[in-house]
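DATA SHEET
Item: assembly model
Revision: 1
Owner: S.N.
Input lines:
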Amino acid sequence: MPLVRCRSVVCLFGRFPALAGLDLDVEAGEVLLCSGPNGAGKTTLLRMLAGLVPAHSGEAEVLGSDLFSDRRSPRRRLALVGHETFCYDDLTVRENLRFTARASGRDGDEIDAVTDRLGLAALSDVTHARLSAGQRRRLALANALVREPELLLLDEPHAGLDEAGRAVLHEVVAAAPAEGRTVVMASHELELARALATREVRIEAGRAHAITAAEARAANRPDQEVQGR
Amino acid sequence: MSLWREALLVAGKDLRIEARSRVALAQILPFGIVVVLLFAFALDPDRGVLARVAPGLFWIAVLLAALLAVGRSFAVETQSNARDGLRLAGLDGAAVFLGKSGAIATELLGLELVLGLGVVVLYDVEVHGLGVLVLAALAATVGVAATGTLYGVLAAGLRLRETLLPLLVLPVLAPVMLGATRAFEDGLAGAPGDAWPWVALLWIFGVLYTGIGVLAFGSLWEND
């Protein structure tokens, strides 16, 4: 049973189909890269999987829940790192993380470990408004990890990160399968993202296309298993 | 986590943000004081007009300041798209409603206390029937906070929310304005017996809109 199962999913913004009959399976422990041009539907796909955007037709199951009948239930078992941090300007790093943890039904014991891991420990008492763009990206990732998600959705995770930040991100994503975590990420930083991905699909015009063996070889990763729908 | 614990979590977060940012203290409260002062300038206190219309002026000042508090409550959710974070946490929409309206009500009670003192001093009002005034103020505050929160989330998804919120909320709050003003008039006139029907009306309104908010807020919150 795949962790994510989409069949002919259509998401509409007005009359515009952001997803136009998308088929996708994601198995537990995978690190799936969604590549594709701007406006192809990558962000909509991640937001739909997170239950933030409703699908209009097709079949969509995430973590065993049918998104057409219940978009809320899977949320406590997944996390989304989006273009913004989902944090409050006037709360400190620690206060933001504690609120997220408690709102997600966690006790917040893991906050220190997460801030240490992401290099945010020294910034624990700094408000979100005073963080730099790169520090905010790290906080966004920390905000996701304190929820201990089974499914981690990353939308352009490399954007705004310096070398050290990217190293931290790579450590988190590389360790995800061993920590019982499945990752779906959308990225334009293909070289960096492909180094982490176990599989890649290309999203174009709201549909997912398998990356062919020839494309994989062209991308200098001939040893990787090529799947996708 | 229970509904009430989730609501307390949201209320605590909103109040902490307000305490840290001091928007309520440095902007909303002074705005209410300025409105009370402007009425004092506009209506000559020597002619006794101010004392007679003090209840109505007080509640107009509270309602105008409440609009700012409601707008602020939803503005913080647009910072870094925090609203999506709150939705992703899987909190019950009813808990978010109760938490947000509880935080707004707490801020309004503080505001009413300060404005009430200002009205007593500036408008030369003698206070009688304190019990009925307090109960009327509590009921009116529940109603204003619940209605403001419900219409606040409606307006939050709209592009012109700053201008639409007053247009949506103020007509709905007309019964609160009427009931609270009459209850205060009767209470201050030393006739609390006449005030109780108005206090009852205010509580009915507050409970009704709290109930509607608990039932309806979740779907409005989800479908911005």
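QC remark: Residues 222-229 of chain A have pLDDT under 50 and may be disordered.
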